[in-house]
Amino acid sequence: MDIEVLRRAPLFASLGDDVFAALTDELIEVDLPRGSSVFREGDQGDQLYFIVSGKIKLGRTAQDGRENLLAILGPGELFGEMALFDPSPRTATATAVSETRLAGLKNENLRALLETRPEVSAQLLQALARRLRRTNESLADLVFSDVPGRVAKALLDLADRFGRPATDGILVAHELTQEELAQLVGASRETVNKALAEFVQRGWLRLEARAVVILDIQRLRQRSR
Amino acid sequence: MDIEVLRRAPLFASLGDDVFAALTDELIEVDLPRGSSVFREGDQGDQLYFIVSGKIKLGRTAQDGRENLLAILGPGELFGEMALFDPSPRTATATAVSETRLAGLKNENLRALLETRPEVSAQLLQALARRLRRTNESLADLVFSDVPGRVAKALLDLADRFGRPATDGILVAHELTQEELAQLVGASRETVNKALAEFVQRGWLRLEARAVVILDIQRLRQRSR
DNA sequence: GGCGGTTGTGACGACTGATACACGTCTCCC
DNA sequence: GGGAGACGTGTATCAGTCGTCACAACCGCC
Fold first, then answer.
1. How many CB atoms lie within 10 A of CB B211?
2. Which one of A66, B50, B124, B152 is least enclosed by Cβ atoms within 10 Å?
3. For position B7, what pLDDT does the model report?
4. Closest partner residue to B142 among A84, A116, A186, by Cβ?
């Protein structure tokens, strides 16, 4: 397994090489094809996961079957950590958006580390605080912004995290279908499609297969406010 | 100051009496009338707060002045803890909903405790995880439920936390104006008012000054799904 | 007694979800 | 290699929810 990504993860950055080496022995490798789930809402969770490569979507399903996505996570990020502190079952389903490799860590193993290493606790607290901040941000967006605004914001966020410079703009290979993008911003696929078409028509974007190229990031930023 | 509430707070429950006594010396008492703020969005934060009595609303303001509330917190709960892990300024404004007494604790003091007491870290992690869970819940509600549904949900939540049995139902003295309730559920005051009027007309609720009496909690629960 | 803040209610318009359908593309199987 | 079907995408029409605006009534407090 490529452990370089994990070595650089903030949670482990403070650890000595020996402690980190001991930890890697406890990691459980998981490989997932697109569309398969790591765990589902309601499952009992005894593990948390680091993303080595690929992308994971965290989603919830309403009783009528509609879905909404809480987050798209990429390499170096961790998820499923809430089971550590709370015995209640998982409140979200984690699904691979693309072919994905994970490193799982049993709660008990991390718990032992937390007992002896206050810096690791601090890092975990920071990670949770940041997630809470992001979620609060999304809440405000849902209340204040219309669908095109939320789409613009989501694209900019994805660009920040997964964007790569291209010849004529920023290539964002988000790997999401428009349906998934719609679930992420809390709107219908059709409305998201129209918002994208409008952005394209204005020359701010170019659409590619499960990707976009941002051509005019300034305008897009302006639209997202 | 009435420290009984704090002694029972989960964050301190695991501490010995001696450690707790030392901690109380570091607490800073704050009294607030209705409407005054503990801190505002953008402030630099170096303290977190426990609610001894009263209620606090956490809110954000959009650039056009519209507000939305992230949470209503009551006695025993803590807030402002995100400044501990993240140097960035406060992302919400904390305002007293009623006359409120707080106990403030400097970040540095808590940090010292975290270094030596892993149980306190664990409690703090748990508190954050629960908040994140609640926030995710709110997100899903915004996407899936209509305004009456969200109002019903908010009332049930407030009833859980602040309700007291009355002769003909559950008295929920939330102390919020309809405007504040609207900001909490992410809707306009008028729409919230109409939802409340409908519930009253169906005999599920009785309205009182900054309070409601829930008469038929079953139906209200059903409406909230 | 007046005045600001809060509540109650109606009319209207805009955004957006639902529905329906055409089209393109990819995969898998024959 | 080609075709069928599943999946993803592009677009239009229509109806419903909800926000905005407007205004009346009410309450509590100075």
1. 16
2. A66
3. 80
4. A186
Q: What are phi and psi of B219, to 5 degrees?
A: -60, -40
Minimal CA separation from B75 to chain A, in Å: 22
CB contact under 8 Å between B142 and A144, yes or no, is no
Distance of CA B31 to the CA centre of its chain: 17
Within 10 angstroms of residue A164's Cβ, the number of other Cβ atoms is 9
- Chain B residues touching A116 at Cβ < 8 A: 118
The footprint of strand C (CB < 7 Å) covers: A 146-148, 186-188, 190-191, 209; B 177-179, 189-190, 193-194, 196-197, 207, 209-210
Q: How many CB atoms lie within 10 A of CB A15?
A: 18
Distance CA A12, CA A21 (A): 11
pLDDT by residue for chain A (225 residues), tens only, comes to 567 777 787 877 777 777 777 888 888 989 888 888 999 998 988 899 999 989 999 999 988 888 999 999 999 899 998 888 877 899 999 999 988 999 999 988 888 888 888 888 888 888 899 999 999 999 999 999 999 999 999 999 999 999 889 888 899 999 999 999 999 999 999 999 999 999 999 999 998 878 899 999 999 999 988
* Residue B40 contacts residue B89 (beta carbons within 8 Å): no
According to DSSP, the residues that pair with B213 across neighbouring strands are B171, B206
> DSSP state, B89?
P
Q: What are phi and psi of B188, to 5 degrees?
A: -85, 155
For A26-48, give the secondary structure using H, E and C.
CCEEEEECCCCEEECCCCCCCEE
Residue A82: Cβ within 10 Å count: 23
Distance CA B107, CA B83 (A): 8
Distance, CA of B180 to CA of B190 (rounded, Å) = 12
Q: What is the pTM of this model?
A: 0.88
Q: Give the integer Cα–Cα distance in Å for B175 and A130.
A: 31
Burial of B41 (0-12, 13-18, 19+ CB in 10 A): middle
- Confidence at residue A122, expressed as pLDDT on a 0 to 100 scale: 85
DSSP 3-state of A162: helix
CA distance A97 to A82: 21
Residue of B91, B97, B41 whose CA lies nearest to B74: B97
Fill in the amino acid letter for A182: A
Which residues in chain B land under pLDDT 70? 1
